[in-house]
Design brief:
The protein is an alpha/beta fold. Helices cover about 40% and strands about 10% of the residues. It folds into 2 domains: about 70 residues, no CATH class; about 240 residues, Rossmann fold (3-Layer(aba) Sandwich). It has 14 helices and 11 strands. The strands form 2 sheets. Strands 8-7-6-5-9-10-11 form a 7-stranded parallel sheet, sandwiched between helices. It has a 4-stranded parallel sheet with strand order 1-2-3-4.
């Protein structure tokens, strides 16, 4: 099936003589296009397209499937491209105490809560979410073509002033300079540090340190481990973006968050954002596409789950040959959360056993990724 994502292509298709190959029209405004009120449209899809009532009626009676967005729904069910920070943070008020609350991202989260969170008894909403997530996965795989993706996983509780935050940012900056595409779960903590490193890839050491210093100060009495709830959390991120703006040659990174954790705003430093409703699809997909390795910085239950989810993919080579698993923090992963003995036992007779690296040295972590050839 032909995928048509721009109006000119749609117009050329409509003017072709019959028989025309089935096509999927994605996120287009076709109200001023000719040719959609005559002929046959067997097998065609019109996904989140803007149509006149006459067009919509004719298309459905001549074999097309038409899925239109509801005006009551703040998001578009079928997207053609990944989100950008500018889209998700549209409506951000830098002068408001909670500037995020007025954003598009916050409105979608509020709608998700109001219509049933993970489970909804509204079939129209459930189908719209599934279609949305399908289109995000499609756009994500297009964005990965020809790239070398590496993910950094870790806890959302890592504070910007913690030395570990700067370490993750430095690792991500170096790998970005090496032309790896950095991925993360797209949220705060270690995830944000990943995208900050990519954002600052063309900047000097002192500039990265200054950016972290701008991000680090917290309000008096702010609770530990919940920095993303600080009223100025996003304000500080935008202060860094304004002082060190992205240039025309800036490096990309992709954040992959979920509205399941929508109370945690996504990172403002990711250049593209693949935001999902279904967390299970998001987690499985994030680890599956990190084909050049995953670095696990300290985290809690979610990070432990991701370690063994990645191990399972490597164990069965579900998505191709295994890739490096770098566990950053020897004491953390051998004593505090001792996953290493079980992981090494599990991988003892498998190819990925040689790709497991446990280290406190950021340069060793980087080399584990560099030396792997997929």
């Amino acid at each position: 099936m032909i995928e048509i994502k721009d109006a000119d292509h749609a117009q050329r298709w409509a003017r072709r003589p019959p028989p025309r190959p089935p096509a999927a029209f994605e996120g287009l405004d076709l109200r001023r296009c000719d040719g959609f009120e005559s002929g046959q449209f067997d097998g065609c899809l019109f996904l989140s397209c803007r149509l006149t009532p006459a067009q919509a009626g004719y298309l459905t009676t001549t074999g097309a499937t038409v899925l239109r967005d509801s005006p009551d729904r703040p998001y578009t069910a079928h997207r053609v491209e990944l989100y950008t920070p500018e889209e998700l943070f549209a409506g951000y008020d830098p002068d408001a105490p909670d500037g995020w609350a007025t954003t598009f991202d916050a409105r979608v989260y509020a709608h998700w809560v109001a219509t049933g969170r993970q489970y909804t008894d509204r079939i129209d909403e459930s189908l719209a979410r599934r279609l949305h997530d399908h289109s995000i996965s499609d756009a994500l795989h297009e964005a990965l073509e020809g790239r070398r993706p590496v993910a950094i996983m870790g806890g959302h509780a890592l504070e910007r002033g913690d030395p570990g935050y700067s370490t993750v940012a430095r690792i991500a900056r170096t790998l970005t300079r090496d032309d790896f595409l950095m991925l993360s779960g797209g949220g705060p903590g270690a995830m944000e540090a990943t995208h900050l490193g990519a954002w600052m890839a063309d900047r000097a050491d002192d500039e990265l340190a200054a950016a972290v210093s701008t991000l680090a100060p917290r309000p008096p009495g702010a609770p530990p481990g919940r920095e993303y709830a600080d009223p100025d959390w996003l304000h500080r991120a935008f202060a860094v973006r304004d002082r060190w703006p992205a240039g025309p040659s800036s490096h990309e990174s992709i954040g992959i968050p979920t509205w399941m954790y929508g109370h945690e705003p996504p990172s403002a430093f990711a250049s593209k954002i693949a935001k999902y409703f279904a967390n299970s699809v998001r987690e499985e997909g994030l680890l599956a596409i990190a084909t050049h390795g995953v670095i696990f910085s300290p985290g809690s239950a979610g990070t432990v789950q991701e370690i063994f989810q990645d191990a399972t993919q490597n164990h069965y080579e579900s998505f191709g040959p295994p890739s490096p698993m770098v566990l950053f923090g020897v004491d953390y992963w051998t004593r505090r959360l001792p996953v290493i003995p079980l992981l090494r036992t599990l991988a003892a007779d498998r190819a990925y056993g040689d790709l497991i690296v446990v280290t406190d040295d950021e340069h060793e972590a980087i080399e584990a990724i560099r030396r792997h050839r997929r």
